[in-house]
Amino acid sequence: MEQIRLQKFLARAGIASRRAAEEMIRQGRVEVNGAIPEIGSRVDPARDEIRLDGKRVSLENQLVYVALNKPRNCITTARDPQGRSTVFDFLPRLDVRIFPVGRLDYDAEGLLLLTNDGELANRLLHPRYGISKIYEVKVKGIPDRGALQRLRSGIELEEGVTGPAGAGILRELPGAAWIRIELHQGWNRQIKRMCEVVGHPVLKLRRIAYGPVRLGKLRPGEFRLLERDEIRRIYRDAGLDEE
Length: 243
Prior knowledge:
alpha+beta, 3-stranded antiparallel β-sheet, single chain, 9-stranded mixed β-sheet
């Protein structure tokens, strides 16, 4: 494996962002082959021994990016003490350990990204980068223009006022409607709480896009590896170079 900057190695290993990794190096917490390195040092992950606070840090040789159509009634974790189905029940055994980027509620479905690229995952979840996430949401009742405008302009929740969002009706049903919501935040149960405030509780929710990645024709429980162009575009959206 070719040499990469030490702070980038630590970020890819999921330890911290590059900036935080640089601070760890300055503090002398990082060792390379038993020596304290300088900022900007380059390492070969396949040959060098890198330690943080005395603990060995390793980088998987192969970065993996998976898109899964998470079914309803399964949890976004590796194991569940209650014995419920998890998203990993729908994935094959891999030579590397991957983890979900964020989560979808137990009763929600749709696009879930999983990877072992710690740096990208941190960027996608960080509010600074405002990565777009698009949902199709079935709500009770039919939201009027005022309710949609409140969703778009901001709803007061415990954490504060939600940021600007996209919201529009996809189709109306007897006593319900499917609406499209685009968020650039990731607060816990955010869409459910927003819709509850405007008087239209969520009946069903599915995510159809995460940044440039689209759910497409994946059926619930199906997965695919991201294409090279998708990886390139999601790196760009997260403000990362792909060197």
